[in-house]
């Protein structure tokens, strides 16, 4: 069973709260209490040491009696909130600050000094003198290295517990504040992350179903979540464009194959049925051969595209682009004469070779010039210009023909794409020439741009690296 991330975070949050409160209850409380006991023990130890010194210094050697401490030391008991007991070496109480206890507890028969050896403080009811547990600190009184009595200071542990609880309550309050802040943070997390993630998940499911028109993913967030949503939206748009392109591609290639096949079938049927006279066979056989050549050209184009898709190997070598232009232009002289098109060639004053795959660049220039002639008006001109700028050489082919519609400029590089105008004008083209041009230029890590105005003309410009 799949558990959502939000559920895990909520469970973790409450586990954190339980562990926190338990730690305070059992850990922090114990630490604070022990710290207060240690501090109070040190206070009482300092006090009993001072009293023991006083008693030692004022010991009656003649009568072998201990004198009681001065009123100064006795007043300190109220400051320290403790009780004072002085015991002689026979374990008899000779002084206690406890009222009405001196007679009742004149002798501590169970008192064992060894019980406090190595540890001056103990928590008990001090031989039933106190009704509740009391922190007792004892310091022996010595004279000439002989123990002559003991000074004991007592304070109720309830006072220590109350003080430690004050600190613990503050810790509880601080942790509660952290708990509330964490809860607010969790709510913000849910609102800012998990809700958008749910929307993104829903959108992804819709896109997976092919519903690329789903447009309810409008998060408008300038953070990573927003970037993810925008990336997903962009992906959906690309997938939609890819689907549309695939449909257009199939439609275009179907049209390009169907048209010559329809012509071939129609003329052959007419010849078979006797509609076309035998005397006209040669004329229509020429048409059938032309349509067959068109089909062959389409098939060769598909095969060539598959070759590019499989991976293009570029053979970089230096060569003269001016020779490529001159030789290619010569092959189109007949077509230009038929349409009375003037080819104007402009070379830079400084001759510089380029480094690229000459055969593939020749194909690029051939395809671009072929397109320029094909879509140029009769009695027009085409300008071929070569220029050097920086470390690049730019080749421009500019015609003054029918131009390309603005909404088709980004689509002309697609395989088998033809504008409506060119589809009626171009009966022999396969629609893959510019796709091949783009692939070759990209394989060279170069750029190709197109500038076109419908009814005015088109200019293609591509770059190559100079060889120096």
Q: How many DSSP helices?
A: 10
The global form is rod-shaped
Main beta-sheet strand count, sense and barrel state = 7 strands, mixed
Mean pLDDT: 80
Spans of at least 5 consecutive residues with low confidence: 420-425
Which structural category fits the helices and strands?
alpha+beta
Task: Using the CA coordinates, give the radius of gyration.
Answer: 51 Å
State the order of secondary-structure elements, H for helix, E for strand.
HHEEEEEHHHEHHEEHEEHHEE
The helicity comes to 40-55%
Distance between the termini: 67 Å
Provide the descriptors you would attach to this structure in a database record.
single chain; 468 residues; alpha+beta; 7-stranded mixed sheet; 5-stranded antiparallel sheet; 12 strands; 53% helix; rod-shaped
Characterization of this structure:
- The chain has 468 residues and is α+β, with helices and mostly antiparallel strands.
- Helix content is 53%, strand content 17%.
- The protein has helices at 5-57, 71-80, 157-208, 224-273, 281-309, 321-331, 333-339, 358-374, 420-425, 433-443, and strands spanning 83-88, 93-96, 121-124, 134-143, 146-156, 317-319, 342-346, 353-356, 381-389, 392-399, 448-453, 457-467.
- The strands form two sheets. Strands 6, 7, 8, 9, 10, 11 and 12 form a seven-stranded mixed sheet that branches. Strands 2-1-5-4-3 form a five-stranded antiparallel sheet.
- A hairpin with a 2-residue loop joins strand 9 and strand 10.
- Residues 420-425 have low confidence and may be disordered.
């Amino acid at each position: 069973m799949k558990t959502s991330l939000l559920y895990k975070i909520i469970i973790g949050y409450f586990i954190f709260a339980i562990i926190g409160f338990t730690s305070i209850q059992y850990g922090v409380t114990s630490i604070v209490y022990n710290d207060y006991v240690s501090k109070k023990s040190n206070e009482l130890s300092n006090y009993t040491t001072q009293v023991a010194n006083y008693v030692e210094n004022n010991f009656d050697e003649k009568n072998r009696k201990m004198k009681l401490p001065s009123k100064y030391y006795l007043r300190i008991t109220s400051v320290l909130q403790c009780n004072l007991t002085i015991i002689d070496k026979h374990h008899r109480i000779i002084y206690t600050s406890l009222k009405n206890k001196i007679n009742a507890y004149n002798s501590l028969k169970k008192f064992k000094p060894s019980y406090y050896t190595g540890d001056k403080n103990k928590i008990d009811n001090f031989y039933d003198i106190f009704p509740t547990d009391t922190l007792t600190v004892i310091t022996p009184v010595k004279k000439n290295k002989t123990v002559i009595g003991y000074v004991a200071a007592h304070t109720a542990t309830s006072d220590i517990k109350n003080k430690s609880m004050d600190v613990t309550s503050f810790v509880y309050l601080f942790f509660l504040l952290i708990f509330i802040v964490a809860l607010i943070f969790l709510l913000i997390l849910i609102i800012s992350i998990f809700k958008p993630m749910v929307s993104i998940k829903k959108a992804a499911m819709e896109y997976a179903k092919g519903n690329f028109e789903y447009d309810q993913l409008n998060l408008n967030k300038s953070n990573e979540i927003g970037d993810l949503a925008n990336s997903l939206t962009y992906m959906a748009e690309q997938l939609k464009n890819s689907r549309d392109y695939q449909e257009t591609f199939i439609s275009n290639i179907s049209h390009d194959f169907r048209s010559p096949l329809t012509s071939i079938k129609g003329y052959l049927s007419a010849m078979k049925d006797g509609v076309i006279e035998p005397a006209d066979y040669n004329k229509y056989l020429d048409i059938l051969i032309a349509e067959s050549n068109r089909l062959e050209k389409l098939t060769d184009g598909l095969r060539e595209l598959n070759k590019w898709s499989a991976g293009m190997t570029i053979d970089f070598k230096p060569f003269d682009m001016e020779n490529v232009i001159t030789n290619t232009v010569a092959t189109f002289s007949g077509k230009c004469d038929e349409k009375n098109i003037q080819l104007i060639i402009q070379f830079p004053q400084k001759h510089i070779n380029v480094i690229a795959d000459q055969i593939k660049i020749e194909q690029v220039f051939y395809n671009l010039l072929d397109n320029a002639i094909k879509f140029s008006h009769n009695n027009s001109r085409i300008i071929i210009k070569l220029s050097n700028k920086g470390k690049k050489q730019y080749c421009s082919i500019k015609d003054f023909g029918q131009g390309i519609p603005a909404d088709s400029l980004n689509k002309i590089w697609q395989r088998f794409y033809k504008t409506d105008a060119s589809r009626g004008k171009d009966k022999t083209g396969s629609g893959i020439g510019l796709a091949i041009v783009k692939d070759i230029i990209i394989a060279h890590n170069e750029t190709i741009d197109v500038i076109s105005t419908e009814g005015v003309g088109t200019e293609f410009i591509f770059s190559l690296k100079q060889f120096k």
